[in-house]
Amino acid sequence: MNLHRRNRWVQVLYPLFAYYVLYYVSDEIALSYLGEGREMVALLFATVVTLGPIALLYQKALPSKEDIPKTRREWLMEGLYILGIALLGLKINLLAQNLPLLEYSSGYGKASYVLSSGSIFLRILVLGILTPFLEELVFRGLILGQMLGWMDVKWAVVISSALFGILHFNVVQFLYATIMGVLLGALYVKTQKVWATWAAHGLCNLLVLFLIG
User: Fold this and answer.
1) 37 phi-psi bin (left φ>0, alpha ψ -120 to 50, beta other)
2) Phi and psi dihedrals of 105, rounded to 5?
3) Is the pLDDT of residue 1 over 50?
4) Higher per-residue confidence, 71 vs 122
5) By the 8 A CB rule, do 131 and 47 touch?
6) Distance separating alpha carbons of residues 125 and 43, to the nearest angstrom
7) Is 128 exposed, middle or buried (CB count within 10 Å of its CB: 0-12, 13-18, 19+)?
8) Nearest 5°: CA angle at 167, between 166 and 168?
9) Which residues, at least 6 apart from 61, have a Cβ–Cβ distance to it below 8 Å?
10) Which of 43, 133, 208, 210 would you call most buried, defined as having the most Cβ atoms within 10 angstroms of its Cβ?
11) Which residues, 6+ apart, have CB-to-CB distance to 102 below 8 Å?
12) What are phi and psi of 70, to 5 degrees?
């Protein structure tokens, strides 16, 4: 691998590493002070701590090009894309929860417990707004956005989606998040807008929260 190509991968993997360290260290620190039963508050703290540095990395790597739709037709089409992906994500989540792999994935059980803790307001804030925004900045904005500058589109979407799945740390969520990542990646490729993938991701999480629990 030549130096130029290695530098490209460093530019992609550096924000992933920064996200992982900041988020999970912050979460562990918060949990050590808050104690058991306050996992959602710890996630809120970790998300807020991580958002600032990641947003700065995003602005530095990819200067803002988040154009707002200008016509009613553009608003309608992007709204339909967002709604369609959110509904597909809900369906994929339902299928994932019926996989026979559940009994072999203790990590999924722990994640489900954490994501169902806290007040409904706190879960809406964390799961429906802040966490999707952070994850979209990292995986669609920074990682996929930079890969698209030097890699085949299909491979860029697949690799960024696989990384998204891997960082969920259990088999069931890996499958769900990877497929969802492909859908969100396709939306990003089409729109070049993180706000669009954030809206789809957040809406999907809210649908899962209210319809599945």
Assistant:
1) left
2) -120, 85
3) no
4) 122
5) yes
6) 11
7) buried
8) 90
9) 11, 15, 142, 145, 146
10) 43
11) 108, 109, 172
12) -100, -25
Domains of the chain by residue range: 3-211
Compute the radius of gyration of the chain from its Cα atoms.
17
Token pair 């050590």: residue: 32
Structure-block tokens of residue 13: 């993997």
The angle at the Cα of 162, spanning 160 to 165, to the nearest 5 degrees, equals 115
Average pLDDT of the segment spanning 26-55: 92
Calpha distance 204→196 (Å, rounded): 12
Distance between the two ends of the chain, CA-based, in angstroms?
46
Question: Angle at Cα 38 formed by Cα 37 and Cα 42, nearest 5°?
Answer: 145
Q: Which amino acid is at 199?
A: A
Query: Distance between CA atoms of 177 and 163, rounded to whole angstroms?
Result: 9
Place of tokens 């924000």: 15
Structure confidence at residue 69 (pLDDT): 66
State how far the Cα of 137 lies from the Cα of 15, in Å rounded to an integer.
10
* Residue 181 in this model has a pLDDT that exceeds 90: yes
Which residues, 6+ apart, have CB-to-CB distance to 124 below 8 Å?
206, 209
Reduced to 3 states (helix: H, G, I; strand: E, B; else coil), residue 168 is coil
Residue-by-residue DSSP string for 95-149: HHTT-GGGGG-HHHHHHHHHHT-S-HHHHIIIIIIIHHHHHIIIIIIIIIHHHTT
